[in-house]
Amino acid sequence: MVQITINQQRIDVPEGMTVMQAADSAGIRIPRLCAHKALTPFGGCRLCVVEVEGMRVPMASCTLPVSEGMVVETETESLKKSRQFVLTMLFSERNHFCPFCQVSGGDCELQNAAYHEEMTHWPIQPGWNEFPVDTSHPYFVLDNNRCILCRRCVSACAEMAGNFTLSVADRGAKSMIVADTDIPLGESSCIKCGSCAQVCPTGALIDRFSAYQSHDRNLEETSSVCVGCSVGCAVKVMTRDNRLVRIEGDWDGAVNGGVLCELGRYIPLTESRPRLTTPLARKNGSLEPVSWDEALTLAQSRLQSGSLAALASTRLSVEALTAFKELFETKLAAQLTTTLEEGRATSATAKYAERVGNFEGRLDLLQTADVVLCVGADINRHHQVAGFLFKRNLNNGANLIVIDSAETTLAERARFVLAPKADATQTLILALQAVIAKEGLERKSLALADVESRVEKAVAECGVSAEALTQSARLLASAITPVILYGEADEATVEALHQLAVQIAATDEERNGILALKGGANSQAASLLGLERPFRLAGGETLYLALSDDALPQALADEIRKAEFVVAQASYESEVAEIADLVLPVGIWAEESGHFVNLDGRVQKAQKALDAPNEIPDNLNLLNQIAERMNITLNADWREAVRQRNVGAELRIL
Amino acid sequence: MSKPKIASDWMCGCAGCHMSLLDMDERILKIVELADLRATPITDLKEPDESGVDVGVLEGGINNSANEEVAKKMRARSKILVALGDCAVFGGVPALRNFCGVQAALRRAYVEAESNEEGSQIPDDPELATMTETRAVHEVVDVDYNVPGCPPDPDTIFYVLSELAQGRKPKLKDELLHWD
Ligand code: SF4
Ligand code: SF4
Ligand code: SF4
Ligand code: SF4
After folding, report:
1. What's the whole-model pTM score?
2. Which of A57, A282, A444, B149 is the most exposed place for a label (fewest CB within 10 A)?
3. How many angstroms does the Cα of residue A430 sit away from the middle of ligand 4?
4. Which option is the CATH number for A122-270: 3.40.50.12160, 2.40.40.10, 3.30.70.20, 3.30.390.10?
């Protein structure tokens, strides 16, 4: 710790902090425009200058490290003058029309900074040059007229999303924020994560959905968890008058540290399926509104006779999934209880873990990985934030090796891409092990026999060249902090990957550098609960479909039609409405609280942010109501229920 | 001692700032108590006293030769000149016109706009003022106090006028200072 004095206040802070961080920690706000707590500071805007005793000129506090005994002043008359000058120059460069700007009146850091310096006008008027406005992006608008070239967006794109779409073109007065080679954002390599819009201090990057809906101070903010996938990113759900206005990444999010992907940030706002707000029962072929009483009576009679199957979405909370399992599997003895995912992304890993114990590591290892081997997972398309965690480092010496028999958008960023023929992934992994052994590069010997033949077999069977195989093996084996990330795989492939992890010391006493991506938000919980069997109907069953706000996978639709009677617990009118005989409306993700187990076993709570329309119940509530009708009490404790087996990742109920 | 004199005028604005002035409600009586309200767009007198006033207030930017005259006259006749509102302080919404230039703006308004009759022309009567770029008041004459806001709040206007009327220097900050 070092002791420094800021504005006569003594504070003790850890060594290595910057003066700005020290001030923040003491609640002293130093003005800033380019610095942002989630981004690397570079001292660009000069607004954060402070006076330091013994230094001749004011210093940028965002890059100045604290030192013992430092005496700092942040609010002197001369600093005010110098900040006014910085702001004067900024306002003279571009075109600011505050009265009709979305962020004016509290949400603009530039305007707030000018108010802080008590600026009543612009000493230098703008030159009235027009700057480009890019409206090609589906989610936000880039208005260069309001841009102050602070580069936060550029840093966010690179450091948070690892996407490197944005940069500053030209120099000096001609500088401009551009996408790729100065093409419209909507046609660029942008992955639509929205990080740039979240960090922009001005109205230069404005969110289309929330624009002009409200000042932030009038929004309610609910800390929650994204249920888009199993990464488990922390979100702030911003609402007003029971309406969803915006979703932001939570800077304090354990997994994501503020970044989100398109699925988490924007897709929920594009929801256009009409809501179900009243129970419907099929009468003479078409679905007609019925009372809750009639609906529940019908559900009761159907669920208590004949053979029964039950299918749930992995977007349900653990509480709801536990109740689902207890009701259908334990109490009603359904022939089949599973999820829409059918365990495709979890069951092989879980089976393997049942043999060897938990073997997976944590997502944060991706942030420091020097080599990532990504197997059968196009993380540009799904689980994107897991990809962001290491793609950020790909321009800083980290390397990516991709194994995928399908075409993958990751190829562009990969050092090596191995594309085995379908079903040959395991053979390829075994061959990688063999090459590493043959070249004497093992960190831990797997004592492999038949090394030569394995490689030959792989080359013959996989359609991968010996050269590519060898180079990938060498790179993998040379890694200090490698991580293996895999998508859907069979048990043999999982085993081969785990062995490879041990062989290259991705996994050793200290770390488990291997992770399965899993599927939906609670696919790990479903796995823990054993809800991961394939969905096959014999025909003639009553099917209970707890779909919630999920979409029905096309692949299951035909199988579902085999059921004689379908009860759908659903939020939206959709294809379900066509196949269901009884529809019970439920709340959507934002209308209920509950826990989620992410892919590395972290248990997090999603919080209710909206009231459901028409007082329809949430998923757990509805399951309880159905049980009550049948005089069944559901009392399984989810915390107990998820502790019955090892499925790969260590469960962490924090 | 006689009460300080206040005069005001408007130029390239929308009258909103003067509406906001009236919006101070009964506090206007307080202003009248403190000061002698002379020529304003809302009183009968139309020009600031030749003998001068203590405080001159200008709403709106300067976008033609007539505005220039108004501004210069007010400056010449006021001890203290106040630029009231975003248009006077920054140029405001009318300054959007500066992006396309005077001729294009005139053509759009008098010739191209859908509401014009066939064959309409830009008026060219020599008696008309000549249009210029839209400028903030301080670009044309010296301003002592800039009071931004679109419009400035009645509270802000009351504060500024009552301070000036009592010989004090108003300082805009916190909730009295906004640019929108
Ligand atoms: S970005 Fe800020 S300063 Fe610029 S117009 Fe908008 S509110 Fe005003
Ligand atoms: S767009 Fe926003 S974040 Fe990017 S440089 Fe401009 S002001 Fe900064
Ligand atoms: S949305 Fe994400 S990927 Fe796209 S430009 Fe912004 S930061 Fe980069
Ligand atoms: S990675 Fe998954 S959890 Fe994170 S924001 Fe995207 S969809 Fe949501």
Report:
1. 0.95
2. A57
3. 32
4. 3.30.70.20
User: CA A111, A115, A120: angle at the middle one, nearest 5?
Assistant: 100
- CA of residue A131 relative to chain centroid, distance: 34
**Three-state DSSP class for residue A42:** coil
CA-to-CA distance for A631 and A320, rounded, in angstroms?
A: 18
Give the torsion sign (CA, A439, A440, A445, A450). Answer: positive
For residues A299-314, give the mean pLDDT: 95
Burial of A7: CB neighbours in 10 Å, binned 0-12, 13-18, 19+: middle
All structural domains of chain A with their residue ranges: 2-75, 122-270, 280-345+523-652, 347-516
The region, left, alpha or beta by phi > 0 then psi within -120 to 50, assigned to residue A232 is: left
DSSP string, A448-511: -S-HHHHHHHHHHHH---HHHHHHHHHHHHH-SS-EEEE-S--HHHHHHHHHHHHHTTSBSSS-
- A229: closest CA among A175, A184, A265, A270? A265
Question: From CA A420, how far away is CA A115, in angstroms rounded?
Answer: 61
Look at the domain A2-75 and name its fold.
Answer: Ubiquitin-like (UB roll) (3.10.20)
CATH class of A280-345+523-652: alpha beta
Distance, in Å, from the CA atom of A169 to the CA atom of A184, rounded to the nearest integer, reads 14
Owner of token pair 């208005």: A143
What value of ipTM does the predicted structure carry?
Answer: 0.96
Instruction: Look at B179 and A111 and tell me if their CB atoms are within 8 Å.
Output: yes
B50-70 pLDDT, tens digit each: 999 999 999 999 999 999 999
The rounded Å distance from CA A152 to ligand 2 centre is 6
SS (H, E, C) A87-122: HHHHHHHCCCCHHHCCCCCCCCHHHHHHHHCCCCCC
Structure tokens at B148: 């931004």
Give the burial string for A105-132 (b: 16+ CB within 10 Å, else e).
Answer: bebbbbbebbbbbebbbbeebbebeebe
* Cα–Cα dist B57/B80, whole Å: 8
CB A387 near ligand 4, within 6 Å: no
Residue A99, min C-alpha distance to chain B (Å): 4
Question: Which tokens in the block code for residue B179?
Answer: 């640019």
Q: What confidence tier does B113 reach under pLDDT thresholds 50, 70, 90?
A: very high
- What is the rounded CA–CA span in Å between residue A177 and residue A154? 8
Confidence of residue B2 (pLDDT cuts 50, 70, 90): confident
- Residue A503 confidence class, pLDDT cut points 50, 70, 90: very high
> How high is the pLDDT of residue A405?
94
B139 φ/ψ angles, rounded to the nearest 5 degrees? -80, -15
Lookup: tokens for A321: 């999934």
pLDDT over 90 (residue A305): no
Look up residue A398 and give its DSSP letter. Answer: -
CA atoms within a 13 Å half-sphere pointing along the CA-CB vector of A103: 23
Query: 3-class SS at A99?
Result: helix
Cα three-residue angle B100-B106-B108, rounded to 5 degrees: 75
Span B5-95+133-170 CATH architecture: 3-Layer(aba) Sandwich (3.40)
CB A419, CB A448: distance < 8 Å: no
Residues A627, A335 contacting (CB under 8 angstroms):
no
**Which of A328, A329, A310, A370 has its CA nearest to residue A565?**
A310
pLDDT band at A458 (very low <50, low <70, confident <90, very high): confident
Strand partners, A291: none
CA B99 to chain centre: 22
CB A280 within 8 A of CB A289: yes
* Domain extent listing, chain B: 5-95+133-170
Mutant choice from B17, B86, B144, B179 vs A, greatest count of A C-beta within 10 A = B179
The CATH code belonging to domain A347-516 is 3.40.228.10
DSSP reduced 3-state for A149: coil
